[in-house]
C-alpha cells in the first residue's frame, strides 16, 4: 500500500470511529423501548425504558418525562411527586425506571392538544407517550386512590379481553391476563398516596 493510500485509509478509519463515538450518545428512538408510563398512588408500579443508540445501550443518559400542560392538569399527583418534568438516568444496560406516584389515564388520542407526555433523552425529543394507571377514575388532586370504581371500570375490559388504551397497563397493545395481574395488587390494597 502506498503512503497516500495508507493516509487515506487511516483518515477513513478515524472518521468512522468519530462517527461511531458520536452515534453512541444519540438515542435511536425507534430501537429504544419506551412504553406508556404507569402512575400508581404511592409509586409502587415501575415503568422501565431501555434507551439504545445504533451501537447499543446508552449509559448515563438523562431521560425526562415532560408532561404537557393538559397532561399535567389531567393527572392526579401525590404530594411529593415532582412534575410536570420527571427525570431519571440510564444505567449501563440503558435502563431507567420511573415510579410515578399518582394516577389518571392520559390518552394522547383523546387529550386536548394531542400530547400527554413527551420523552426526551439527553434533551432530544424521542417519543410521545401516554400515561396509564390502576387509578383510572382519578381525581385531579390528591389523595389519588385505587377504589372500587376503578375495579368496576377495569372488570369489563379485563374479563372480555377488550382493548382500551387505559386498561393496557403493560403497553403490549392487548388487554388481558398480564394487565389483570398488574392491576390486582393496587386494587386489593386500595393503593393510595403516602
Ligand atoms: Ca396489556
The biggest sheet, with number of strands, parallel, antiparallel or mixed sense and barrel status, is: 4 strands, antiparallel
Q: Taking all residues together, what is the mean pLDDT? A: 91
Question: How large a portion of the residues is in β-strands, by DSSP E?
Answer: 15-25%
Q: What is the end-to-end distance?
A: 71 Å
Structural class: alpha+beta
Written overview of the protein:
With 194 residues, the chain is α+β, with helices and mostly antiparallel strands. The chain has one domain (25-188). It has helices at residues 3-24, 69-74, 148-160, 177-188; strands at residues 37-38, 47-50, 52-53, 56-57, 62-67, 76-77, 85-89, 95-98, 102-103, 117-121, 124-129, 131-132. The strands form 5 sheets. The protein has a 4-stranded antiparallel sheet with strand order 7-5-10-11. A two-stranded parallel ribbon has the order 1-12. Strands 2-8 form a two-stranded antiparallel ribbon. Helix 3 (148-160) runs antiparallel to helix 4 (177-188). Residues 12-22 have low confidence and may be disordered. The chain binds calcium ion (CA). Residues 168, 170, 172, 174-175, 178-179 line the site of calcium ion (CA). Residues 168, 170, 172, 174-175, 178-179 line the site of calcium ion.
Keywords for this structure?
alpha+beta; globular; 194 residues; binds calcium ion; 27% helix; 4 helices
